[in-house]
Design goal:
With 226 residues, the chain is an alpha/beta fold. It is built from six helices and eleven strands. The longest helix is centred in the last third of the chain and has 23 residues.
């Protein structure tokens, strides 16, 4: 993975990245579904971009799953985005204000939670980016616990859907903004940056024509070829 290419992803919107991933044949477009920005509160131009530090949560009743030797926040790498995958059926939070304090002092860029958070005011007061499926008043105990860190996690969409699951591996590049969250596999970052830049140029030309009075269909046909 080129560090220069990865840094350029921060200049791309999540929509531009998803469009690029679709063109590369990734059916879910990297989109981690059902997740929204809770801190800072929208509207916000906040965008985080960095390598994934993954955390798999399990039900607290699961005695067969392993247990990390350390609290997962204490081992967050500087400059990473924490990605937490919680069991889909739980209603408790897996991230709170104390975790934001610990992650922030260790240099984490933000957290993406396939699950719930709590202590919204504390995250917002700290100006720490938090993206989650929802929020709750309940903490982890006695409902869930961390099981593994820096392992591939498979995030399954809510409800009955044909939308494919998204696998996030440690080090995959996470970009999150007010439109949503995308995950980019490490080995195609340079291709994604190139296609996203081209897509932006085409859309800018379409926008110019449409604002000048052109029909949307005509602009698309002229610049997108369809």
């Amino acid at each position: 993975m080129s560090t220069a290419s990865a840094s350029k992803l921060a200049d791309c919107s999540t929509c531009e990245i998803s469009d690029a991933l679709i063109k590369l044949g990734i059916l879910h477009g990297g989109h981690i579904p059902d997740i929204h920005m809770y801190s800072p509160p929208p509207p916000s131009n906040t965008r985080i971009s960095g390598p994934a530090y993954t955390v798999q949560m399990v039900l607290a009743s699961d005695t067969s799953a392993p247990k990390p030797a350390h609290h997962f926040v204490d081992t967050v790498p500087n400059g990473s985005v924490v990605v937490i995958n919680a069991p889909p059926q739980v209603k408790n939070a897996v991230w709170g204000g104390l975790m934001t304090a610990g992650a922030q002092v260790r240099g984490a860029l933000g957290v993406v939670i396939s699950g719930r958070c709590r202590d919204l005011a504390e995250h917002r007061s700290a100006n720490f980016p938090v993206f989650a499926k929802g929020h709750s008043t309940l903490g982890q105990s006695p409902f869930t616990r961390p099981s593994a860190v820096n392992v591939p996690v498979t995030i399954i969409p809510e409800g009955s859907t044909d939308f494919p699951a998204v696998e996030v591996k440690p080090g995959d590049w996470i970009v999150a903004d007010e439109d949503g969250v995308v995950s980019v596999p490490q080995d195609i970052i340079a291709k994604v940056v190139e296609l996203a830049a081209k897509g932006r140029e085409i859309d800018e030309k379409c926008m110019q024509d449409i604002r000048a009075g052109s029909g949307v269909q005509a602009a698309f046909k002229k610049h997108r070829g369809k």
